[in-house]
Amino acid sequence: MKWTKTLINTLREDPGDAEIDSHKLLMRAGICRKNGAGLFTFMPLGMRSLRKIEQIVREEMNRAGALEILMPALQPAELWQKTGRWDTMGANMFRLKDRGDHFMAMGPTAEEEVTDLMTNIISSYRQLPVTVYQIQTKFRDETRPRFGLMRSKEFIMKDGYSFDTDAEAADKTYWNMYKAYEKIFARCGLKATPVQADGGDMGDSMTHEFHALADAGEDGIASCPSCGYAANLERAERKIEERNDAECPAYEKVATPNSRTIEEVASFFSLPPTSFVKTLVYVADGTPVMVCVPGDRDVNEVKMKRLLSAKSFALADARTVEEVTGAPVGFAGPVKPAKADIKIYADFSLKGARGMIVGANEGDSHIKNVDLARDASIEQYADIVICGAGDMCPKCGAKMELKRGIEVGQVFKLGTKYSDAFHTVYKDENATEKICIMGCYGVGVTRTLQAVIEQSHDKDGIIWPASISPYQVVIDLLDPDNEEVVKVSDELEKTLEDAGIDVIVDDRQDRPGVKFKDADLIGFTVRVVVGAKGLSKGGVEIKRRDQSKEEMKIVPPDQAFDVIKELLV
RNA sequence: CGGACCGUAGCGCAGCCUGGUAGCGCGUUUGCUUGGGGUGCAAAAGGUCACGGGUUCAAAUCCCGUCGGUCCGACCA
Q: How far is Cα A146 from Cα A151, in angstroms, rounded to an integer?
């Protein structure tokens, strides 16, 4: 392919609305163009990489035994009403009406659709296990699209769904997919780490997310350098040492005018935040609860939500706080709240805590010398704070590290949440009707593309892994008017194409510097320079994008092919 | 959905405060020049200043509204 025959439009300057490197490069290299908030057009270069990623996903899914299908992105509302998600998905789902006044959804995911489909197809245990998948555009009305393809309103996702006869078989399928995902990301040149995650509304059982570690990632991940434990901060646990503080005298009230936050109270007492108990009032499914954590810690709302099996869990408003505590916001505490029967949950690390300072449930007052076990009625101690760097690994006790990641894939055990709703059953060997156990498996295809860029770039531009480079090789034809040089370039181009290697020839009437800059910006895996000066000095120059100038090889044209092939492995 | 800011040529921006016939850089086109890391010179094309209303002799500029966009927060199968 000749550069002048395709449509490549690079930008010298960063787009004004891009924040992170990968987003800037996506635009600068001409991979994408923005159409609106969270909406992008893939230009020819981007399209090539995108299709290559899809093909890798397809090959690995097929190899894992999954079957490709394609379902409509436009889905009838009835399916969603059947599982109740028509309501619970809220404003995140694009909804519209057809001319017959029927509500439809632009699919944000497809559990309902696929379960409805398979319910009518599956009848016998002989058909199971079965996994189907599709690579399809998904729609989500994100309140705040961000970071280019990372969080967009329309994106391409591979979504797969498995149907098994029992929990054991479903477990096998789960790990089969898990392994397929490891291969997919490895082949895309992406370092993706599997981490334990929270199921959210999707289901309550086991799930792993695959994260491309990157500072620009939106998710926090706790990981243990010693044993490899890794979990999304939403779920990450920590090991807690047993605590048994020295006995303290009876508690007493202390006036703490205008000291509401832990910082203010800590400075008032001249004590570290760990000497205090932070008490927050939440509302879980309409019922207020109190949550106590050490003063230097934050409540993990996802953990609380799971602990209480709550559908909704959010901080209470000021009025509720006043009703519950009998004091203005800022003075809540676990000792004798106004609402005496309120359930109080405390973090494990507070078990055995004595001599603590807590809010007095009275304006401008705190109480000190609190022994939580003696003075408060704690419903339950549990791990309910967000892990921090330095917390002990729950598996091995080593100090954990905090990292950031981009979620590029997720595998879920769905159980029977959807098969129950749709009555997806099969007959077993004894002709007994049994429910299917489901799993679902997603890969953010467009997000993976950007995650690769985020992980693989330098100050000059993108560094594409060979497997998904728009063209694996770029030939910088420096003297497009020199017949001899053109002949060498044309021959090499043909040799490469005949061998199935993607190659683009920069045949523009431009100075070498322009071609080098663009080749680096777009980041084709291998660059071959063919020019009169080079040929007179012995040949063509070959270098992989991630190699330095010093590592550049100069070889006679007839050896170029072998050297290029070597570099693409 | 709360808070802040921004909409001027394909891209990046200035002009707005203090109203007076719309500018710069990049890119594009043409010619010459240069020819191994975004060459230099010259010429040219390209804008209903987001949209609607108001104030005014006069609005990119001031006021009101709408729409779009960005950031912080909340949310996020």
A: 5
- Residue A302: which pLDDT band, with cuts at 50, 70 and 90? confident
Under CATH, to which class is A252-382 assigned? alpha beta
Is the Cβ atom of A533 within 7 Å of strand B at any atom? yes
CATH 3.90.960.10 intervals, chain A: 252-382
Q: What is the pTM of this model?
A: 0.94
Superfamily, domain A15-236+402-453: Bira Bifunctional Protein; Domain 2 (3.30.930.10)
Q: Taking the CA atoms of A475, A481, A484 and A486 in sequence, report the sign of the dihedral they define.
A: positive
Residue limits of CATH 3.30.930.10 in chain A = 15-236+402-453
CATH number of A471-568: 3.40.50.800
Cα first-last separation, chain A: 22
Q: What's the rounded Cα separation, in Å, for the pair A148 and A33?
A: 10
Q: Does A204 have pLDDT greater than 60? A: no
Strand B interface, A 71-130, C-beta < 7 A:
92, 108-109
Q: Residue A566 has what pLDDT? A: 96
